[in-house]
Amino acid sequence: MSIFSGLDEIVETDYPLAKRTWYGLGGPADYLIRPQTVEQLKEVVQRCSENKIPIYVMGFGSNLLISDDGLRAAVIKLEAGQFAQTQFNLSEAGLTAWAGVELSRVVLTCVQKGLSGLEALTGIPGSVGGAIKMNAGGNFGDIGAAVETVTLMDAQGSVFEKSKPELVFDYRRTNITAKFILNAQLKLNAADPEQIMRTVKEIWIYKKNNQPLNTKNSGCIFK
Ligand SMILES: Cc1cc2nc3c(=O)[nH]c(=O)nc-3n(C[C@H](O)[C@H](O)[C@H](O)COP(=O)(O)OP(=O)(O)OC[C@H]3O[C@@H](n4cnc5c(N)ncnc54)[C@H](O)[C@@H]3O)c2cc1C
């Protein structure tokens, strides 16, 4: 019986990671796995643990440099199914964003719904999971300012939450050490959608003047 039998739909073998990184770099991973649910992710983690397969987590691959030798490991991408959801609680200006949602989509949906707080993420490529891990942001703020609670899974498959003030965000880092960020609860502010859109446009213009956004580039190399 193969290591991931019964999970064939979400497991690809000998997968060229260059196809999934911003820079188009990276050799093959032994396994690329895209679970659709938290339960499936638990199952994958358990099988990796039983078979001593190292795990790497990948978001949209916009902050990753992977060797041409690839990875003798399972690379797990939380991008589909449950991990692609956003759940709004408009009466409390709250949003639960799952790890695989694209940042630009969250920013624009918040504009439409009249929720302010994520404009600083305009123009940053990535997923919610990657943005939280890196505390993505810039001159106008960072995602950490809006995060109240994160739901995490450790390398043994246990799911738990971490909230502020225990949860700390700093310059391009957090104190999250758990293997997986599953989702984040964000606290935003109700505001006029037109005003939020104006701010998004201003930040976009600022970025365009500082980075060639219409070409493949590396943003600013800051670490
Ligand atoms: C053109 C360009 C412009 C950029 N501009 C900015 C900018 O203005 N500000 C800024 O902060 N960054 C910027 N970046 C860097 C990058 O976009 C951010 O770091 C982004 O948050 C990475 O998200 P990702 O989903 O691509 O993560 P990845 O690159 O896939 O992963 C980054 C890290 O997060 C971890 N990770 C990803 N998802 C999860 C998860 N669900 N659970 C646990 N760990 C996870 C990975 O293991 C890895 O350690 C830029 C990059 C480019 C290429």
TrEMBL record:
GO MF annotations in UniProt: FAD binding; UDP-N-acetylmuramate dehydrogenase activity
Annotated GO biological process: cell wall organization
Ranges for domain FAD-binding PCMH-type: 25-191
CC per GO annotation: cytosol
PANTHER family assigned to the protein according to its UniProt record, in alphabetical order: UDP-N-ACETYLENOLPYRUVOYLGLUCOSAMINE REDUCTASE (PTHR21071)
HAMAP family assigned: MurB (MF_00037)
Protein name: FAD-binding PCMH-type domain-containing protein
Species the sequence originates in: marine sediment metagenome
